[in-house]
Structure formats: structure tokens, C-alpha cells
């Protein structure tokens, strides 16, 4: 008798979650909002807010993640606007807040229905994620599992929020730093007009890191295979 109300309530919440996701995609892809998501437009807007530019960018990043804007786009914009180091800090902060927000949305609107639909076969996997939540999230972040779907998807499981947040924070540090360092460094050379810097150690190092980042998932999987 208690299962049906749970399914009914969970189904209604899941409907809201579905409507939220569809609405977010429509808003970003078919509204004027997408025109504001360029380096020029965002840079102009952030310059207009002056001292508050980093905070505004972090908020834009966090909201953008919840609205299914690709994290790589937002990170690249941050690197181009704030440079390799501050760009990394603000992008990582925005990604953390955004991933936490998406997780809470998924947990609040989708977990109840997911739990009611989980049978005996899937229950053991749900429990395993709860036990090994930190390691699971860390591994998936390091192998570049799609960022936003994972944020919402993890909210549907029994994973502890603390494990999810810490695993995310550590898991995205390397990739975020490499990406912002490469983009930010190239932007600094472009802005200075000193094209001789294109053959500097810093440029080669940033490009090497960027190329290396594509091999991280392979290395992690290979290491995991050897450990197993």
C-alpha cells in the first residue's frame, strides 16, 4: 500500500525533472541566451560589472551547468577572459557549484521514482555506489564521463552528497587546469601581439599538457585494469 503513493509522488517529480531538462535545452538552443555565450559577449558583460566579474562568472557557470550548457565551453570562456590561473580558479569553483546544484535537482525530483523502480537486480548496484561513492565519482570524472548527465544521474542513486562532491572536486582539477592553462596562455599571446611567444616554453608546455589530457582516460583505465 505504501509503494503506490511513492510511485505516484515520484512520477510527478520525475515529470517536473523531465520538463526542466527539456525547458533548459530549449532555452539554451532556441532563445537569445545562446547569443550571449560567446567570449566577446560575456567579456563585455563582465567588464560592465567591474569588481564583481569573477562572482558573476561563477554564477553564470553554475547556472549554465544546470541548464546543460557544455562545461568545456564555459571553462574555455573563463580561461579566455581571466587567463590561465584565475580562469582555472573561477571555472573550477563554478563547476563545483553547478555540479552540486544539478545533483540536488536530480536527487530532489528523480530519486524517489528511481528508488521505486529499482528491482533486486539493480538494488545491489545502487548499494555498491553508496558504499564506494567517492571512488566511483573520482574514477568517472578522471575518465571524462559526460559532465552534466553525470551530475543529474548521480542524484538518482544512493550516493552520499559528500562523497559525490569530494570525488567531483578532485576528479575535475587536472582536466580543468590543463584546459584553462592551454586556452588562457594562447589568449595571452594573442592579446599581447608578440607572436614570438608562440615558440616559448610556456606555449609548448601548455599544448603538451592539452594533448596529454586526451590520454588521461586511457591511462586511468589501463591502470585500473592492471590493479584489478
From TrEMBL:
Family: Belongs to the TVP38/TMEM64 family.
Membrane-spanning parts: 12-31, 51-73, 85-105, 164-183, 203-220
Protein name: TVP38/TMEM64 family membrane protein
Subcellular location: Cell membrane
This protein's GO CC annotations: plasma membrane
Entry keyword Transmembrane: yes
Domain of life: Bacteria
UniProt keyword list: Cell membrane, Membrane, Transmembrane, Transmembrane helix
Primary location recorded for the protein, binned into one broad class: membrane
Domain VTT: 69-182
Taxonomic source organism: Desulfosarcina widdelii
Record membrane topology: Multi-pass membrane protein
Pfam families: VTT_dom
Amino acid at each position: 500500500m505504501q509503494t503506490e503513493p511513492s510511485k505516484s509522488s515520484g512520477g510527478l517529480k520525475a515529470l517536473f525533472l523531465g520538463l526542466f531538462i527539456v525547458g533548459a535545452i530549449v532555452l539554451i538552443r532556441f532563445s537569445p541566451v545562446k547569443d550571449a555565450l560567446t567570449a566577446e559577449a560575456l567579456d563585455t558583460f563582465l567588464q560592465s560589472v567591474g569588481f564583481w566579474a569573477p562572482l558573476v562568472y561563477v554564477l553564470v557557470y553554475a547556472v549554465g551547468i544546470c541548464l546543460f550548457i557544455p562545461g568545456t565551453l564555459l571553462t574555455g570562456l573563463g580561461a579566455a577572459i581571466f587567463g590561465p590561473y584565475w580562469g582555472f580558479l573561477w571555472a573550477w569553483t563554478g563547476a563545483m557549484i553547478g555540479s552540486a546544484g544539478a545533483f540536488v535537482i536530480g536527487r530532489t525530483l528523480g530519486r524517489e521514482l528511481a528508488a521505486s523502480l529499482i528491482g533486486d537486480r539493480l538494488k545491489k548496484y545502487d548499494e555498491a555506489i553508496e558504499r564506494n561513492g567517492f571512488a566511483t565519482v573520482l574514477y568517472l570524472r578522471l575518465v571524462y564521463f559526460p559532465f552534466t548527465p553525470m551530475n543529474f544521474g548521480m542524484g538518482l542513486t544512493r550516493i552520499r552528497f559528500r562523497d559525490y562532491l569530494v570525488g567531483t572536486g578532485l576528479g575535475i582539477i587536472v582536466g580543468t587546469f590543463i584546459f584553462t592553462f592551454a586556452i588562457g596562455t594562447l589568449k595571452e599571446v594573442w592579446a599581447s601581439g608578440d607572436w614570438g611567444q608562440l615558440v616559448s616554453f610556456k606555449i609548448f608546455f601548455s599544448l603538451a599538457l592539452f594533448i596529454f589530457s586526451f590520454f588521461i582516460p586511457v591511462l586511468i583505465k589501463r591502470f585500473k585494469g592492471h590493479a584489478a
